[in-house]
Design brief:
The chain is mainly β. It has one helix spanning 2-9, and strands spanning 19-27, 33-41, 50-58, 68-71, 83-90, 96-104, 110-118.
């Protein structure tokens, strides 16, 4: 009933957008951390402006509580069933905790939030030289 009343008066802004996300954080062969975020509008109408944020924390360094801004675009609108892909790369050997959030820009309502972690870069140590046998 309320939805019909809002539609009749043109107040569609009060309905939160339906968005889905795919969030990947992984370490590549070179040891860099690749971050990929897909945001998709699942509705048959454009979204309100969306604010997307991805911050990273290096968990095993002294300043690990200081966030590194990874993806912070200006707020954007997705047309019906549109997908926007955002990517970034971090060059750090440390373990990384990545926090992703999607909010309505105007009202600040949280739509999606995901946390992912990546292990530190494996340090390759050369094999120990074989010791000669004592006679």
């Amino acid at each position: 009933m309320l939805g019909a009343a809002l539609a009749a008066t043109g107040c569609q802004d009060t309905i939160s957008p339906r968005v889905s996300t795919e969030f990947e954080v992984k370490r590549d062969e070179a040891g860099k951390v690749a971050v990929k975020l897909d945001v998709r509008n699942d509705a048959d109408r454009p979204t309100v402006p969306l604010m997307v944020e991805v911050d990273a924390f290096e968990t095993d360094v002294p300043d690990g509580n200081k966030p590194l801004p990874v993806i912070h675009p200006a707020p954007f609108v997705l047309n019906r069933h549109e997908t926007r892909t955002l990517t970034a790369e971090l060059d750090t050997p440390s373990a990384v905790l990545a926090l992703m959030s999607v909010k309505e820009s105007e009202r600040g309502i949280l739509l999606k939030s995901v946390t992912k972690t990546v292990e530190p870069k494996a340090v390759l140590t050369p094999p120990a030289a074989a010791e000669p046998e004592a006679k």
